[in-house]
Amino acid sequence: xxxxxxxxxxxxxxxxxxxxxxxxxxxxxxxxxxxxxxxxxxxxxxxxxxxxxxxxxxxxxxxxxxxxxxxxxxxxxxxxxxxxxxxxxxxxxxxxxxxxxxxxxxxxxxxxxxxxxxxxxxxxx
Amino acid sequence: xxxxxxxxxxxxxxxxxxxxxxxxxxxxxxxxxxxxxxxxxxxxxxxxxxxxxxxxxxxxxxxxxxxxxxxxxxxxxxxxxxxxxxxxxxxxxxxxxxxxxxxxxxxxxxxxxxxxxxxxxxxxxxxxxxxxxxxxxxxxxxxxxxxxxxxxxxxxxxxxxxxxxxxxxxxxxxxxxxxxxxxxxxxxxxxxxxxxxxxxxxxxxxxxxxxxxxxxxxxxxxxxxxxxxxxxxxxxxxxxxxxxxxxxxxxxxxxxxxxxxxxxxxxxxxxxxxxxxxxxxxxxxxxxxxxxxxxxxxxxxxxxxxxxxxxxxxxxxxxxxxxxxxxxxxxxxxxxxxxxxxxxxxxxxxxxxxxxxxxxxxxxxxxxxxxxxxxxxxxxxxxxxxxxxxxxxxxxxxxxxxxxxxxxxxxxxxxxxxxxxxxxxxxxxxxxxxxxxxxxxxxxxxxxxxxxxxxxxxxxxxxxxxxxxxxxxxxxxxxxxx
Lengths: 125, 482
What we know:
The complex is a heterodimer. By secondary structure, chain A is mainly beta. Helix content of chain A is 6%, strand content 26%. Chain A is built from one helix and eight strands; from the N terminus they run βββαβββββ. In chain A, strands 3-2-8-6-7 form a five-stranded mixed β-sheet, covered by helices on one side. The two termini of chain A are 27 Å apart. The relative contact order of chain A is 0.18. By secondary structure, chain B is an alpha/beta fold. Chain B folds into three domains: 3-125 and 279-363, FAD/NAD(P)-binding domain; 128-276, FAD/NAD(P)-binding domain, CATH 3.50.50; 379-437. Chain B has 14 helices and 21 strands. In chain B, strand 2, helix 2 and strand 3 form a beta-alpha-beta unit. Chains A and B meet through strand 1, helix 1, strand 5 and strand 7 of A and strand 9, helix 3 and strand 10 of B.
């Protein structure tokens, strides 16, 4: 098991029933509840990581969870570098994961085109 | 009427806003979140409001009362989703630059505020020391686990280890357990002797803080109920896995926090939550020109007034003292910012409470403060700066090779602390590690806490603000010509 949402029926806090929201991440549909952050929706779906680092090309997701570390940044509806732990998910949000190649790698695609993990050099296709 | 600006709507900021209103000021209260309450009272959003939210919080009624009073008061403007990105010092006074809108949004409206007085109550965030594997997905700061549990009812893992130092580990473990995670253990780095040194002296001074004991006792009970083991003198010294955490290594520590060889033990876990204390968010105080103490908290006098006229500070940026200290300091600061006298009856109770609870900061430091031996768990390839991916070995070698004693120059040559988080996560660690490489320490007197641009701003937003200013200036110039 990994990250997950606590089922409301078991929750002593008794959260109100919230309407669903659906977003896509790199084209994949993920649903959550209104009021959740993008990071919360992704974690509740079992995803732990979405960004790829520039130097080591290693995966990153939430680290600080309160908007300090910027590890969880994603592109939201065309805006880059949005902290997923701070932005609440809107129904229909189009999320792209981010990978910014280091400058000077001219033989590789520009980073604007490289925002989807399946386009990473060396990624299984 | 005095116009008071309060930055930050956690316990200190809320108390400051209320005290300023009660003293007759008009108040503008800003917070970067779209909710009030700060990290301490972080809660489910209105769309999912919890019927029994009080079960997750201490002092929930106190929060509700504060929030209701501020929202209903005609003299109080509450501005949520407000990101202060700069404080400018002009001859006429301070100008506070704010963007209002979704976090990291685009084309957000901007505001420039010129209040009569400011209360800075920006709080603190976890300080997490690096360890091998801490950059793996599944390693979280303890605050992340807490925020996701309280704010979303999301558990960061199924089998979770909590580690680090300080009393904050206890509520984090309790929240995780109440969010359906199995907490495999809480590992406190400090050893019994240090804990005794911090918490046992002058026990009569703790008598006034009985609410604190109630809070701690409820966490202890929660630990017993959920059968969470609590080990002192232990640390998570490594996380293992290929693209996510699968195991952690726990080891015993000596009094200097160096791992004791031969005591390592591996534990299967899918998440680890780590906090070794707190870093105060002092960049706005620095931007305002406030004097910072050698221990890197904002210097205030007994009215919570900083070294800058009209600027007050309260809460964790003046010392890690917890919610009760923050509430008392906030009330004193807000009262002072509104022009109230230092010994008015309105703040007498808060002055007494502050005396009781600020004692906690020194105790926490004595009992749980970071000890220098922690570098014993670093390896040359352990990342120190997560953003720029600078490993410990390279940081140290570059420091030695350049023989520089300037933090600014070392940041440029190592790139540590230059990434998108602006050194918030690694800054103090980088200063610590580089300082050890240069005998006599780093000498240029700067610090990684200085961030004139306090949060990232999109070029388009800057250009829009610039366009507005220049058009105003052009209008003024044209007016003069006519």
